[in-house]
Amino acid sequence: MTGRSLVAAEPYLVTQEYQNYTAEQQSVWSELVRRRLPQVREHACREFLEGYEIIGLSNELLPNLREITGRLKPRTGWSTTAVSGFLPGDAFFEMLAARMFPTTTWLRSRDSLAYIPEPDIFHDVFGHVPMHAHPVFADFLQHYGSVCSQIQDAKELERLGRLFWYTVEFGLVRQDGEIKVYGSGVISSHGECSNVIGGGCEVRPFSLNEVLDTPVKVDELQKVLFAIESFDQVYEAIQEAEKQIRQVSE
Ligand SMILES: [Fe+2]
Hints:
This protein is α/β, with parallel strands linked by helices and 250 residues long. It has 11 helices and 6 strands. It binds fe (ii) ion.
């Protein structure tokens, strides 16, 4: 699947102009990493922390997407691909299906270190990309894109969007009797992560049907999240969701 040419996503591809990042932006990156790392080291799952080492993020310098791809691709076939911003569904799913993670290149400013409404390179790379080094998660994400890219029905897509939300964005996993985090929305946000580990959020065992039926909340701290027991569960979830959709459309 890798290396195939993109159609829907093609207009959104950009080049990361690395030399254009300013010293101020490098220093904001460094500040963000320094703020997040202590809690992430303590509360992120093993797979995330291993991926973090594999992709070789720096505490000092903004990530170079080409270098990250050079580390990821030999392991799981994923690339970290620069895009201009928010992608419509068809373009987004097309990229995931091709094992290309659409990644923003802009960085929040110093006055909004804690919260930004739209993803930036910190959310995308620090938060998401480490998990792409994990083979099962990597296959899940590719298959998710492939399933969604074949669906037209808005209601089905909304339900599958919840699977993405409660795994890729806000996923939790139970490890050694503790709740650990792996979704980018919890990894990259001190408020969301503290809410989870401080017990402000109900943690339910992951169940595909419950996830598909649970609407997402985008403008407040999460009140209900779902914990998997292992990453095999998310891979099985997308296969099961695909099966259910096929049965309905037959
Ligand atoms: Fe995200």
